[in-house]
Amino acid sequence: MAITVNESVDSREFTDGKSATLTYIIQGTDSEDSAMSELKTEAPATFQSMARQSTSVEPVYIEEGNSDRCVWKGTARYAYVAIQTTPPATGDSLLSFDTGGGTQHITQSLQTISKNAPPDETAPDFNGAIGVTQDSVEGVDITVPIYHFSQTHYLPAENVNNTYIGTLFRLTGKVNNGDFKGLNAGEGLFLGASGSKRGDADWEITFRFAGSPSRTGIVIGDIEPFDKDGWDYMWVLYEDAEDTAANTIVKRPVAAYVEKVYERANYADLGIGT
């Protein structure tokens, strides 16, 4: 009798995305080696995009000298295999980013869409001030564009020494003074770096940044339009003023200030290009 291998009725135990098991009934041999060989021939190399990891056989009924009556249970196990990638070489770089934004407290709107008041009354005009009370302008928290990104570079070991690490330390918290990775001067903020040595060949260093867009032609109330670089800070001075139409005292913007709060630096000193 020739050796036969048939998939059993209780085969195909399958966990999606993880593993699978196929079981077989093997007949016609009293040799474990022959049963295993035939199982490997019959069981597919892949199943549901999973690679075969192992095969095994165990005797169900063995009658020595009568191979026709011998029965084996064969099992083939499958699993997803992670794709092996070549490690980055010295000089390579990897980019990751997040444009999820950040939160900023503002006291001035871009535009007052409507002013509403009871009949025969006029709503006070605050020239875009938000959340005005008798004593202050409370403002509101909004989501603003913040571009977080990091770059991992693999730098030659001879390039990374105490002097270079000190440079990274001193550049942390500084804003770019020239174009850098698609950001104009004033729009990039260096958040620091972390690194470790890979053997004796090179260093794996991750550089972290945040980007904030610059604004031009900012209009606040009756103040002349002005510009602001990305990481400069803007604030507005309010004073009491009379709104003759509403016959009341209101808070109105009388001056806007752009403050430099981060030092500028040359990002070329990071040694990762611009």
What does this structure look like?
By secondary structure, this protein is mainly beta. It has 2 domains: 4-79; 93-270, no CATH class. 8% of the residues lie in helices and 44% in strands. The chain has 2 helices and 18 strands. It has helices spanning 32-42, 162-171; strands at residues 4-7, 13-15, 19-27, 46-47, 50-61, 71-79, 93-98, 102-106, 140-144, 147-156, 175-176, 188-198, 202-211, 215-218, 226-228, 233-243, 248-259, 264-265. The strands form 6 sheets. Strands 1, 2, 3, 4, 5 and 6 form a 6-stranded antiparallel β-sheet that branches. It has a 4-stranded antiparallel β-sheet with strand order 7-10-13-12, covered by helices on one side. A two-stranded antiparallel sheet has the order 8-9. A hairpin with a 2-residue loop joins strand 4 and strand 5 (50-61). The model has no long low-confidence stretch (mean pLDDT 92).
Helices and strands in order, then pairings?
Elements lengths: L3 E4 L5 E3 L3 E9 L4 H11 L3 E2 L2 E12 L9 E9 L13 E6 L3 E5 L33 E5 L2 E10 L5 H10 L3 E2 L11 E11 L3 E10 L3 E4 L7 E3 L4 E11 L4 E12 L4 E2 L9
Parallel strand pairs: 11-18
Antiparallel strand pairs: 1-3, 2-3, 3-6, 4-5, 5-6, 7-10, 8-9, 10-13, 12-13, 14-15, 16-17
Total DSSP helices: 2
- Series of H and E elements: EEEHEEEEEEEHEEEEEEEE
CA distance, first residue to last residue: 75 Å
Strand content: 35-45%
**What structural category characterises the helix and strand content?**
mainly beta
The number of distinct structural domains comes to 2
Q: How is the biggest beta sheet arranged?
A: 6 strands, antiparallel
How many DSSP-defined strands?
18
List low-confidence stretches. none
Mean pLDDT: 92
Quick one: overall form? elongated
Rg result = 35 Å
Helix % is under 10%
